[in-house]
């Protein structure tokens, strides 16, 4: 009986990493100059399969290393060490409109990385791989603590870094999709920030199925953080995406209770009725959403970016950015089809220049990038299902972005977000420079 | 841990006592930024520790703490001074004192020792490989040498150190005679195989096999000296041949690519099998801290028998630690008392600690090399000798112990065995030899391109 050829040696390092950590993928003991496909597979919490693949050719020593070899095709190409993760998409035959989001942060995302013979584009589950390994990708570092928060009328999850603290803190606000989304906070806690993921768009947080929460709710959440024994009360920031970022801007300018040290606003707009509460904001937006001016693309997916355009000149219709008291990092996807992030950013800049506080503004603008700018190395989706909170209607929303530039934007903006937060929340100021540690 | 609760209360009290206007100026409790990467690594993976945001030129202590399965505390620490930017980097800055000195990025792991007040004679061995070792890495203000549990660190990060990569499968092997544990890498295989033999301490020790499987080898940890009273030890060559065949015949193993890996008595068994077994033929052999000196016509002597017969040759160090290295000295000239190294037909890598106090590893290495030279098969031998390294040369970054409690099974005596070695050179030996062993196994267990011209993947 002829001896089966050995399995090539496939090694991933680290085999257990944080979601935002890079990994190296090296295949050895291949024959020289042969075509192989590297394939990544995730079986999501929702039961869907996501995959990515890249085409490579082994070198003279039978080696493929994603750090130094370019992919010649597949779901990503070029020298892209992390392409196997960020270029993932649902396998052929999957349900439409999927988005990959980890709900259970106590467990890792398990990725199976395999090597196949030849340059394959499909039918991976019908072939035997040459080699296969498993990598774990975690949102939570060891020692990070997760606490359910249900006090002071606030619903959310608090993640605390390991160690005695106290820690600077973050109020973490997601967008109009609602629910309690924990993974970004878990990851931020893994970087040393106490982070409160706040649930605010779900009917139960207001106790009323038709109205949304008022400003007092966010103030209560902020105060809860401020008073927490393991939080440095004067070093709290707000990180917001989409509608959450708009809320953050409004609160920072108009609330006397919420005094963030800085803001990170991703894919947002300052356009909102400023005299009212959140409910009023929503009522306004609902008016637009159901009107005939909603655009659809050729595949009947909703494009909402026009709803807030043109950017109003009426000051009662947008946050007075000239009154923003703290530094703000604005992250903008130039292909954002959901919110007019670019136009808003431009208008915000003008308002701040006129008012003389533009030194507080840092804008990161990324071409080819859509609305959902999230922590790096998870798959980009240009479109996904969206449930309208009030009507419970399910539609397909166009978020925008092309996979490669969007993924690079996620990697770059996340790094800069962490640096920005460390800069404003960890660095000692002149006030505290004489303090003894 | 009760000290954690105490620290939380302490922080709360400070906040209550200070008025809010002075709170920010006394907000000296802001934590520096401590990062350790990877947070979850394999035991043989390096870590990168960076402390940021302490004042410039500030003295700090990096500290590690581990609570073992046996409930002992192990710790290590290094004294540093931050640079002008208030940063300390493990890979670039030198420790000026503590349990290790110099630029030693892994010092917080390999220089660990039992915390003051611990029981004596401890050795750190992970018996349950399905869970990680959780190590608490902390940074303290100033150069601290003791009382770590009574002080609040500036920051702490927990890291996990695993012997098992994700996807590696663990299988109990309990056939009528053979007792062991098989570890299989993830994937369709086939894989090269290893039979993993520890020494005279006995029992079923899994961690090295788990780690080998994490590197792509099917590896079986074999128990051959039982630590249970009602189970006999099995030192007959047939037992090892049977175990070897279990690995070799596994459907996911390449039959012609199975190695023997031995430490101490395991090495004696390895060399004996490589030279004399008619039933099995290892593709290559890894021989750590071992000897070819043994009577060849009888089953391997249990170390306790050797102990009995050679009591007069046993020495003691100043602390009563038992030194066994002289038991086999002088190296016999009688061929009946040592493995005929000229009969070995496969590559051998020999790892020798020059300060081995348990076994005459250096003298044995010299003798066996001469035998191979005389027989014309010396080209098969690669030897690595490590000055200052002791007997227990294990996978890297776990603590070295110069002596530890050892149970001599037959007599039930518990002695303190002197293994030898000094922390830094022994740690370097473990790091270097492990890398060389893995490369050796890969080189010999994966067929080279010219030897399988017809193999199609």
Automatic annotation (TrEMBL), chain A:
<feature type="active site" description="Charge relay system">
    <location>
        <position position="242"/>
    </location>
</feature>
<feature type="domain" description="BAAT/Acyl-CoA thioester hydrolase C-terminal">
    <location>
        <begin position="216"/>
        <end position="426"/>
    </location>
</feature>
<dbReference type="GO" id="GO:0047617">
    <property type="term" value="F:fatty acyl-CoA hydrolase activity"/>
</dbReference>
<dbReference type="InterPro" id="IPR042490">
    <property type="entry name" value="Thio_Ohase/BAAT_N"/>
</dbReference>
<comment type="similarity">
    <text>Belongs to the C/M/P thioester hydrolase family.</text>
</comment>
<dbReference type="InterPro" id="IPR006862">
    <property type="entry name" value="Thio_Ohase/aa_AcTrfase"/>
</dbReference>
<dbReference type="Pfam" id="PF08840">
    <property type="entry name" value="BAAT_C"/>
</dbReference>
<dbReference type="InterPro" id="IPR029058">
    <property type="entry name" value="AB_hydrolase_fold"/>
</dbReference>
<protein>
    <recommendedName>
        <fullName>Acyl-CoA thioesterase 19</fullName>
    </recommendedName>
</protein>
<dbReference type="Pfam" id="PF04775">
    <property type="entry name" value="Bile_Hydr_Trans"/>
</dbReference>
<feature type="active site" description="Charge relay system">
    <location>
        <position position="336"/>
    </location>
</feature>
<dbReference type="GO" id="GO:0006631">
    <property type="term" value="P:fatty acid metabolic process"/>
</dbReference>
<dbReference type="GO" id="GO:0006637">
    <property type="term" value="P:acyl-CoA metabolic process"/>
</dbReference>
<dbReference type="InterPro" id="IPR014940">
    <property type="entry name" value="BAAT_C"/>
</dbReference>
<feature type="active site" description="Charge relay system">
    <location>
        <position position="371"/>
    </location>
</feature>
<feature type="domain" description="Acyl-CoA thioester hydrolase/bile acid-CoA amino acid N-acetyltransferase">
    <location>
        <begin position="20"/>
        <end position="151"/>
    </location>
</feature>
<dbReference type="InterPro" id="IPR016662">
    <property type="entry name" value="Acyl-CoA_thioEstase_long-chain"/>
</dbReference>
From TrEMBL, chain B:
<dbReference type="InterPro" id="IPR042490">
    <property type="entry name" value="Thio_Ohase/BAAT_N"/>
</dbReference>
<dbReference type="GO" id="GO:0047617">
    <property type="term" value="F:fatty acyl-CoA hydrolase activity"/>
</dbReference>
<dbReference type="Pfam" id="PF08840">
    <property type="entry name" value="BAAT_C"/>
</dbReference>
<feature type="domain" description="Acyl-CoA thioester hydrolase/bile acid-CoA amino acid N-acetyltransferase">
    <location>
        <begin position="44"/>
        <end position="174"/>
    </location>
</feature>
<dbReference type="InterPro" id="IPR014940">
    <property type="entry name" value="BAAT_C"/>
</dbReference>
<feature type="active site" description="Charge relay system">
    <location>
        <position position="356"/>
    </location>
</feature>
<feature type="domain" description="BAAT/Acyl-CoA thioester hydrolase C-terminal">
    <location>
        <begin position="236"/>
        <end position="446"/>
    </location>
</feature>
<dbReference type="InterPro" id="IPR006862">
    <property type="entry name" value="Thio_Ohase/aa_AcTrfase"/>
</dbReference>
<dbReference type="GO" id="GO:0006637">
    <property type="term" value="P:acyl-CoA metabolic process"/>
</dbReference>
<protein>
    <recommendedName>
        <fullName>Acyl-CoA thioesterase 16</fullName>
    </recommendedName>
</protein>
<dbReference type="InterPro" id="IPR016662">
    <property type="entry name" value="Acyl-CoA_thioEstase_long-chain"/>
</dbReference>
<dbReference type="GO" id="GO:0006631">
    <property type="term" value="P:fatty acid metabolic process"/>
</dbReference>
<dbReference type="InterPro" id="IPR029058">
    <property type="entry name" value="AB_hydrolase_fold"/>
</dbReference>
<feature type="active site" description="Charge relay system">
    <location>
        <position position="391"/>
    </location>
</feature>
<feature type="active site" description="Charge relay system">
    <location>
        <position position="264"/>
    </location>
</feature>
<comment type="similarity">
    <text>Belongs to the C/M/P thioester hydrolase family.</text>
</comment>
<dbReference type="Pfam" id="PF04775">
    <property type="entry name" value="Bile_Hydr_Trans"/>
</dbReference>
